[in-house]
Amino acid sequence: MGVLVFVENVEDELAAQALTFARGIGDGAVAPVTISGDYAPAAWGQTLADIATERSLDAVVAAGTERGNEVLAHAAAILDQPFSANTTAFTPGSPPTVTRVRWGGSLLEEAVLHASTPLMTVAPHAVVPDGNPVAAETVAPSHHALAVAPTKRVGATSTDVSLQDAPVVVSGGRGVGSAEGFAIIEELAGLLGGAVGCSRAVTSAGWRPHTDQVGQTGTKVAPDLYIACGISGATQHMAGCKGAKKLLAINADGEASIFAHADYGVIGDLHEILPAIAAEIRKPRGA
Amino acid sequence: MNVLVCVKRVPLTGGRITLTDDQRALSTKHLGFTVSPHEECAVEEAVQIIEREGGTVTVLTLGPSEAEEQLRDMMAIGADRAIHLVSDEEWDAQGTAAAIVAAIQGDETAHELILFGNESADAGNYQVAIRVAHALQRPVITGVKALAFDLDPAHPRAICEQEVAGGRDVYEVPLPAVVAVKEGINLPRYPSVPGRLRATRKPVDASSPPRPAAQLEMVRLVLPPDSGKQVQVLGRGPEAAPAVVEILGELGVL
Amino acid sequence: MSSPSASLPASQSIVIIGAGIVGNSLAYHLTRLGQRDITLIDKGPLPNPGGSTGHASNFIFPVDHSKEMTQLTLESMRQYKELGVFIESGGIEVARGEARMQELQRRVSSAISWGIEPVSIISPQEVRELVPYIDERLIVGGFYTPGAGVVDSLRAATIMRERAQQAGLTVAANTEVLGLDVEGGRIRRVRTTRGDIEAERVVIACGCWSPKLARMAGASIPLTPAVHQMIDIGPVPRFADAKGMIEYPIIRDVDTNMYERQEGTGLEIGSYAHRPIMMDAEEIPSIEESALSPTELPFTQGDFDPQMEIALELMPEIVGDESVGVKYAINGLLSVTYDGLPLLGETPEVRGLWSAAAIWIKEGPGAGKTVAELMVHGESEIDVYESNIARAYPSMKTRRHVQARAGEGFNKMYGIVHPAEQWESDRGVRLPPFHERERALGAVFYEAAGWERPVWYEANAGLLDEYGDRIARREAEWEARWWSPIINAEHLAMRDRAAIVDLTAFAIFDVSGPAALDTVQRLAMRQMDVPVGRVVYTPILTPGGTFKQDLTIMRMAEDRFRVVTGGAYGMSDLKWFRDHLPQDGSAQVHDQTSAWTTLGLWGPRARDVLASVARGDVSHDGFPFAHWRSLEIGPLEVLASRISYVGDLGWELYVPMEQGARLWDLLWEAGEPHGMIAAGSGVYGTTGRLEKGYRAYGAELDGEYNVVEAGMAWGSVKAEDFVGKPAHVAHREEDPAARMCTLTVEDHTSSSGVKRYMLGKEPILTRDGRPITDRRGRRSYVTSAGSAPSLGRYLLMSYLPPEHARIGEELLVQYMGERYPVTVRSIDATSLFDPDNSRIRR
Question: How many Å apart are CA C124 and CA A114, to the nearest integer?
Answer without folding.
Answer: 71
